[in-house]
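Weekend entry, working from home. Most of the wet-lab plans are on hold until the incubator is repaired, so I used the time to fold the two sequences that have been sitting in the queue since the last round of cloning. Logging both here for the record. First:
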Amino acid sequence: MEILLDEELEKAVDTIIINGEKKYVQPASYDIRVGKEIYFPERGDKKEIKKGDIEHLQPFESALIKTIEEINLALW
């Protein structure tokens, strides 16, 4: 497994990290931003979320959260 440094991550913005912004690049990571949709597979429930919304999960429950960025690993 390879660790990408900030210089490499900055180059990846807009090619591998689509809709990304360089200001979210950290020394060896990228801060992915929460999008506007959340899906609870166990409930079969999908809803729109807004900034400041809080969602509670029950023990062992999962949620899929759409991100603003799209990661294209096919190019890596």
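Second, folded right after the first finished:
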Amino acid sequence: MYPYERSLVKELADEPFVILGVNSDDTAKRLRDTMAKESITWPSFFDGGGTDGPIATSWGVRGWPTVLLIDHEGVIRLRDRDENLLKAGIKKLLPAAREARAAAAGSER
């Protein structure tokens, strides 16, 4: 999944889009090593070495990888790791996220 995630980060660099990772490696050091080895440039949180960590538990994660697509209002819109479904979901949600970003920028003036 990392190559696909890297491609999304690159392709959507100028868009209102972010990847946040939650990792269940055995140790935080192993997470750092994985991030370096796999060229992971997005934030990735250590969750205690399994699906019983506080983040996984809060979000109902029962296995890895689990992919959640969350819109700009914090609503889960997709729970799937299929790359085609994920891409279609991102494409569908981007217009509203762009509008929200533009409105927020306008209100800062």
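Plan for Monday: verify the second prediction. The two ends are 40 Å apart (CA to CA).
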